[in-house]
Write a structure and sequence with these properties.
The chain has 373 residues and is an alpha/beta fold. Helices cover 47% and strands 17% of the residues.
Length: 373
């Protein structure tokens, strides 16, 4: 006779504040997957706790001290099941991913300490735009801790057993974008503390997102000169530096940081697709075709840095369409445009381009007819 099937019990641990618009959506998507729901409230003044009470009676207050790790550690301390799942209030698990989650529980490997899942953090109208991998299920008995005031990470023994499963959590941000995180980082530095490499990375990203481009570039440069365990983050920062210089119209520097990224990691499509675009703007179409075509052949990075999926799919096809169209190779241009549309049929950029592209083709056809006459 076979042994008894192991199905783990799971505690959902969340920290929340003023999440009345998203908390119910999140909990509806996960309530059937977990055995316990822990809600730690850090100072809500809306109906967040009222909504939480319709799902659980395990609601705790935590005085906010500008430190996400402290709040998450408090939530983990309240868990009592075999494994802990953590989510933010604006995260959801789609119906298809819920089914995967349930199936995974049926074949759950009892000897695994940490399970990574995909985290889709930004969406276009069609496909996942940016994703990364995060620890989502953590065996409670290994007693791991969160560290970091902002963009906190889990700290655990390097001997912990880990696997990656093909289950995705989707982040659907609803709240207004604020400079809260920048203020926390600057408060840390005002207190004489030096930002850790991971904090430098996120601090620069926050500055860039808020439009402090030149300040972000300084922080990114500091990060590039700082050793970090995952080289894909250095490569990712080169991508950000390319985008910063592009906004400032420093095209030579864009090229420099594209090439510099190769010092840290094998080529990523985020870089090669940008090289394709830069060469197109320089009217070096053969160069553009080379780098754009290479983008479509590259695998997704294996490190933990964010992945911009459009660089591996429709974006290079769009650049190739532009190149071949300019070179009057309309068969190749049409081929790449159709592939782009197939990959992202509702992408606004492509829909806008389609209208312009159709007009261009019509004008070229008229021109050809006049020449034949």
């Amino acid at each position: 006779m076979g042994g008894i099937q192991y199905i783990p019990t799971i505690s959902l641990c969340m920290i929340v504040k003023d999440e009345e618009s998203t908390l119910g959506r999140c909990l509806d998507s996960v309530k059937d997957l977990v055995d316990e729901i822990i809600i730690v409230d850090t100072g809500s003044v809306d109906k967040t706790k009222e909504i939480a009470r319709t799902y659980t009676d395990k609601i705790y207050d935590f005085t906010w001290i500008d430190n996400f790790a402290s709040a998450r550690n408090f939530s983990f301390e309240k868990a009592s099941m075999d494994y802990i799942l953590w989510l933010d209030a604006d995260d959801v698990i789609s119906e298809s991913e819920q089914k995967k989650f349930k199936k995974f529980k049926e074949v759950f490997p009892e000897d695994i300490d940490i399970i990574f899942m995909q985290y889709s953090t930004a969406y276009s109208s069609e496909n996942t735009s940016i994703s990364t991998r995060r620890e989502r299920l953590i065996k409670r008995s290994i007693n791991c801790k969160w560290i970091g005031a902002v963009h906190e990470v889990l700290d655990y023994d390097s001997k912990a057993t880990k696997i990656l499963v093909e289950i995705a959590i989707t982040h659907k941000k609803e709240k207004e974008f604020t400079n809260r995180n920048i203020k926390i980082y600057e408060k840390i530095m005002e207190n004489g503390e030096k930002l850790a490499p991971r904090d430098l990375y996120h601090y620069g990203k926050e500055l860039m997102a808020h439009g402090y481009i030149e300040k972000a570039m300084d922080v990114f440069e500091d990060f590039l000169n700082t050793p970090f365990i995952d080289p894909t983050f250095h490569s990712a920062i080169c991508i950000d530096l390319v985008d910063c210089h592009y906004k400032l119209e420093n095209k030579d520097q864009c090229m420099y940081y594209c090439l510099k990224s190769f010092e840290f990691d094998i080529p990523r499509a985020e870089i090669t697709s940008r090289l394709g675009q830069l060469f197109f703007e320089q009217k070096k179409f053969e160069n553009s075709i080379f780098w754009s075509s290479l983008s479509l052949q590259l695998p997704l990075p294996k490190g933990g840095s964010p992945i911009l999926h459009s660089s591996y799919t429709w974006q290079p096809h769009l650049t190739l369409c532009s190149c071949y169209s300019t070179l009057n190779n309309h068969e190749q241009a049409d081929n790449h445009f159709q592939k782009a549309i197939e990959l992202a049929p509702n992408e606004p950029i492509l829909l806008n381009y389609k209208e312009q592209y159709e007009k261009y083709k019509a004008s070229q056809k008229d021109l050809l007819q006049k020449q034949e006459e």
